[in-house]
């Protein structure tokens, strides 16, 4: 099967009319982000970027599960098995020379030459938010992560590295670590980078198992990077040298605070000819789908391992694609709903609310999930209060500093024994409206 790289994919969107082209000159100073937000989830291509005649800017490219599933030529329901298989059956990517991402090597490093967006007027600065960050540790080898980076001089950025991330572990050990921030990637690389797997697993091998992925040697670093991406910023990140990072919008669409974060010193920039800058709106659907989707296989696995047949999981955008999980099960015994709740929390430690539904509920339709709650749920019987535990630091309602939160599960499955009214939704006969409406 043939999978397209980012440029080929953009060309395909253009040729099939599946991307909206913006011909009007756009400013990267808040305006481009505002237009992307207004158009979400429609993919946009800004053809004329004020002050950056050599660049085009694209955004909202993979804002829905459907767009990601389409890229892999599967259905959204096949994403969990696909990702699970790719994590289990990793394979080394092909290394190539003379890669597209190094067609142009910038003479001097000047971040001012890149159309890095300022997303909102309250942001601390211009932010790279779509970069997949390649790093390496002498013991654990290569790793992929996402780390937003805020420009503060012509060659320096402060970059958010949450404690516990593999990159954080590498930095703790070495003090300074070479890093390549790669912009302009397809879902094989994006989704692989967003997975949290055991330290030592090279996520580029997961990317390659998702869709054939080419890698190449970075120009100045001993790192293998995605060869087909659009722009690469090579340099070093320092644990002790720190600079203010933020404010910036996080996954919950609320503002994150200013922190002193590690400095990324950019030492070389390479890019494709006629580069396309991949924008990624913070807190928006694309950020959410990439963040939440890799948690679904871990919840799925955990529920099945607890002995309950899990059919599908949606870490849904309404729950910031992080704090809520909707779990669809094939209920066999009365206790299944509650068992699934406890297992789902094991599969995603940052989750705050779990909703378990029967197999007749469409977990992608919030109205159907609410209907299950309205008709099948009784709080004194079906609520599972896990109690106060560490949850997510992103949740503004969690205890500041400790991230302690009250985790609760809702068993929205119907009781197996019906005593009064039934729980099945009544169906009307199916008709073809074309037979009735001209
Ligand atoms: C779009 C996006 C942006 C992210 N931004 C950051 C970030 O700025 N800092 C961070 O530490 N994690 C960020 N993350 C989360 C991690 O990079 C991600 O969960 C990663 O899988 C952690 O991998 P690891 O287990 O290899 O450390 C982001 C994730 C996504 C999808």
List keywords for this structure.
binds flavin mononucleotide; Pnp Oxidase, Chain A; globular; 12 helices; 23 strands; 2 domains; UbiD C-terminal domain-like; 438 residues
* Structural class determined from secondary elements: alpha+beta
Quickly count the helices: 12
Q: How many structural domains does the protein architecture include?
A: 2
The shape, in one word, is globular
CATH C-level of the largest domain: Mainly Beta
> On the 0-100 scale, what is the average pLDDT?
97
The CATH topology annotation of the largest domain reads as Pnp Oxidase, Chain A
- How big a fraction of the residues is strand? 25-35%
Helix content: 10-25%
How many DSSP-defined strands?
23
Low-confidence stretches: none
Q: Report Rg.
A: 23 Å
What about the largest sheet?
A: 9 strands, antiparallel
CATH architecture descriptor of the largest domain = Roll
How would you sum up this structure, described in words?
- This protein is of the alpha+beta class.
- The protein has 2 domains: 6-283, Roll (Pnp Oxidase, Chain A); 291-411, UbiD C-terminal domain-like, CATH 3.40.1670.
- Helices cover 24% and strands 27% of the residues.
- It has helices at residues 6-15, 31-39, 65-72, 79-88, 166-174, 187-194, 203-210, 285-292, 296-305, 336-347, 366-376, 379-382, and strands at residues 20-22, 44-46, 56-59, 94-95, 104-105, 127-128, 132-137, 141-146, 149-151, 156-159, 176-183, 214-217, 224-226, 231-245, 248-249, 255-256, 259-271, 276-278, 309-314, 324-330, 353-357, 383-390, 404-411.
- The strands form 5 sheets. Strands 5, 6, 7, 8, 9, 10, 11, 14 and 17 form a 9-stranded antiparallel β-sheet that branches. Strands 19-20-21-23-22 form a 5-stranded mixed β-sheet, with helices on both faces. The protein has a 4-stranded mixed β-sheet with strand order 1-2-3-18, with helices on one face.
- The protein is globular, with a radius of gyration of 23 Å.
- The model has no long low-confidence stretch (mean pLDDT 97).
- The chain binds flavin mononucleotide.
- Flavin mononucleotide binds at residues 143, 145-148, 160-162, 165-166, 194-196, 280, 287, 290-291.
- Residues 143, 145-148, 160-162, 165-166, 194-196, 280, 287, 290-291 line the site of flavin mononucleotide.
